[in-house]
Amino acid sequence: DGSVWKGARREIISGIEGATTAYQLRPDQSGALIVNNALTGAIYTLPTPVPGMWFEFFTKLACTSNEYKVITKTIASEFIVGALTAFEAFADIDESGTTYPSVVATVNVSINLDGTTTGGLPGDNFILTAVSSVLWVVSAGMNIQSGSTATPWSTS
Fold first, then answer.
1. CA-to-CA distance for 104 and 136, rounded, in angstroms?
2. Taking 60 as the threshold, does the pLDDT of residue 155 lie above it?
3. What pLDDT does 4 receive?
């Protein structure tokens, strides 16, 4: 029993389906692990950023229609920066992958994982952390893709 931290639990958000109605993440869910596990994809809207707030995203099941999308709440003034490194599904262990950056001067407001070329295959994992009232930073970004890889970043 010594390996269990009693009382400490992390919220797991899963079972969100459909790429037509967004699931609004709440500030009190900061620190949650969001598990993508719907064949029909899902849309997650981030709350207004408060420095220190963070969410982790993990793909358990590839979507076969629509996409997994994470988008800022106010697309005119809240942005996502950082880098996601894409790896070809079933790539050799020595392959370095392709890095897709989103720099501060860009206006990227969402990460779109389509289940193939932009990622969204089992094993995808990244963390979004709010560093200001208008900026989210992606870290630990591993993006599993298939076919000709493409950027997961979008301005909408």
1. 10
2. yes
3. 58
Cβ-contact 127, 139 below 8 angstroms: yes
**Type of residue at 85:** T
> What is the Cα gyration radius of the chain?
15
Strand 79-88 relative to strand 125-130: parallel, antiparallel, unpaired? unpaired
pLDDT at site 1: 46
CA 100 to chain centroid: 14
Asked if 96 and 39 count as a contact pair (C-beta separation under 8 A), the reply is no
* CA–CA distance, 137 with 139 (Å, rounded to integer): 6
Phi then psi for residue 139, to 5 deg, are: -140, 165
Q: 153: closest CA among 103, 119, 102, 114?
A: 102
> Hey, where are the domains in the chain?
12-154
DSSP annotation of 49? P
Structure tokens belonging to residue 37: 């596990």
Other CB atoms within a 10 A radius of the CB of residue 147 amount to 10
Residues 42 and 35 sit within 8 Å (Cβ to Cβ): no
Q: Is the separation of the CB atoms in 145 and 117 below 8 Å?
A: yes
